[in-house]
């Protein structure tokens, strides 16, 4: 089954927690803290696999999670980092944030792309030993790895895209100029998935041609099959518009040409700015007047016209030569650059990470990172409490409380820990 669009969820591994441990050895008094650090969580990595041609591997599996890092141990032993999770996708896969549509990566080259970074390992208590704090009884927890809901879209990498109404001879054309073997029959929609073929020219030149399933009127809104596959035209450097010049299906070739161009424009206005050659196929079924009339119609709109009989390779050579000439002058296949996250979104995420509510005279503070930090704090230890005070000040929690209207002596509650606010 050809699947070219899926939605998945990925989660990088959580960092391991730092250890709280003290050196204990015979004849060695006051060995001191020796808790090791937690290991880094595994990343989620996407990599191109040239043996894949669809996203069907994601049909039944939609959630992916990398391995977490190991916790630290005593004797300064650090936890082992989690293994990266490598997800293989076809060449030409575009990865977007499912919520915003922001482009995160274009998997069109062999380089692996890290889409979700694993959490950092937490520090062991050995890091917190100072001249005045010689017995730290707390450590840092590992941070949570990044997680995203992603939209994967396959946009085929092809130099030339064949577009046109169903049953005009696109499949026949690609079958006679390349090794591609699409289904060919005398009825519409015989091609229900895009077909790629490598066309070889003299002097060791070649290019990739894509047969895009037939478009009909309303394709951009879901009619026919075109709405599923229009995205595969977007990377093409050159379009070849195939028309049944004989009107053997009972349609007017001029109407066909205009309708398909209109659908391309509605889907993406940039498509009609691409170089386009017009091919009049099935010339053996057309009269000389039909061919001449359609040629005049096309050339008046600024397009080059090539009459052919694809089934017997008649006049296909000049068409391929012209395609080769144009491709040698055109820029390479379009690659999509990752889009940076808007600054407003970043600032909003930071400001929304801390929630402060006042109920019955008590200011309640909540935040996902704050809860995880508190899990590693021994609040019976004075040094740990001083460290926690520093965390609240440096992360902006105290400033947020001041903005919320807290006054000296007011009660503040953070996940069960209550204290009086002191300036």
Helix content percent band:
10-25%
Order of helices and strands: EEEEEEEEEHEEHEHEHEHHEEHHHEE
CATH superfamily of the largest domain: P-loop containing nucleotide triphosphate hydrolases
CATH topology of the largest domain: Rossmann fold
State the CATH class of the largest domain.
Alpha Beta
Q: How can the largest sheet be summarized? A: 6 strands, mixed
Q: SS-based structural class?
A: alpha/beta
Give the radius of gyration.
32 Å
Strand order of the largest sheet: 10-11-9-12-13-14
* Uncertain stretches of 5 or more adjacent residues: 187-192, 222-226, 346-351
Distance between the termini: 65 Å
Strand content: 15-25%
The shape, in one word, is: elongated
Domains (count): 3
The averaged pLDDT comes out at: 83
Q: What's the total helix number?
A: 9
CATH-scheme architecture of the largest domain: 3-Layer(aba) Sandwich
* Number of strand elements: 18
Describe this structure in words.
The chain is of the alpha/beta class and 423 residues long. It folds into 3 domains: 1-155, GTP1/OBG domain (Spo0b-associated Gtp-binding Protein, Chain: A, Distorted Sandwich); 160-327, Rossmann fold (3-Layer(aba) Sandwich), CATH 3.40.50; 343-420, GTP-binding protein OBG, C-terminal domain (GMP Synthetase, Chain A, domain 3, 2-Layer Sandwich). It is 21% helix and 22% strand. It has 9 helices and 18 strands. It has helices at residues 170-177, 226-229, 253-267, 288-299, 316-327, 343-351, 368-374, 382-394, 397-403, and strands spanning 5-11, 44-48, 63-65, 85-89, 93-97, 103-107, 113-116, 147-154, 160-163, 195-201, 205-211, 238-244, 276-281, 304-307, 355-359, 362-366, 411-414, 417-420. Helix 3 links the parallel strand 12 (238-244) and strand 13 (276-281). The longest helix has 15 residues, at 253-267. 36% of the residues are buried. The model is unreliable at 187-192, 222-226 and 346-351 (pLDDT under 50).
